[in-house]
Request: fold
Amino acid sequence: MDTAARTPETAQTLDRGLRLLHLVADAPRGLTVTEAAALLGIGRAAVYRLVGALTGHGMLRRDTEGRLRLGAGVLHLARRAQPLLAEGALPALRRLAEQAGATAHLTVVEGGEGVALAVVEPSWTSFHVAYRSGSRHPLERGAAGRAILAGRAGQAGPVSSTGELQSGAYGVAAPVLGVAGLEASVGVVALAPLDVTTVGPQVNAAAEAIAAALR
Reply:
């Protein structure tokens, strides 16, 4: 009976803890306990209890000003999930690379930057861009990062770029929408200009296929 009585309280605590993690993740400057309490609609004491538990598991940390930040434990979980994301995306990326004749990639957000999580090169072209998995770049530069920012604004894309990350490289990308907890884009990069009217729909289709595979 005691267990049954405690179940709703435990579920509420879990819900609050997860909401707190999302709030901190969405706050570039971190959050104070007071700010977190106001956003969650609970008292400071309850937030301190949540912070204590989440800090103990490495999910939260405090910076030098005492503001709440995501901890290394979140990155550990994200890295464990990355192979699953890449595996789910590979069929659509292979299809896109062959259709566009350009290097296809899935880019995700990590630490405020875009990171190439999976890369597939076309099999039939004489020359193509060698794009390394793990490459990082600012979200504000390049089609992949700007597509992610467009997705945050609810825009489906596609987004194109020329020479923003590498001189002479052309990119087209679209955000992956509708996958909870995932900020990502799918795109292609080539050494010659890309016809957005042709490649754009291909990129959008790949983004939709990846979203469906990851839901």
Notes: The CA atoms of residues 35 and 44 lie 9 Å apart. The chain has two domains: 2-70, 74-214. Helices lie at 2-25, 33-40, 44-56, 72-100, 143-152, 196-214.
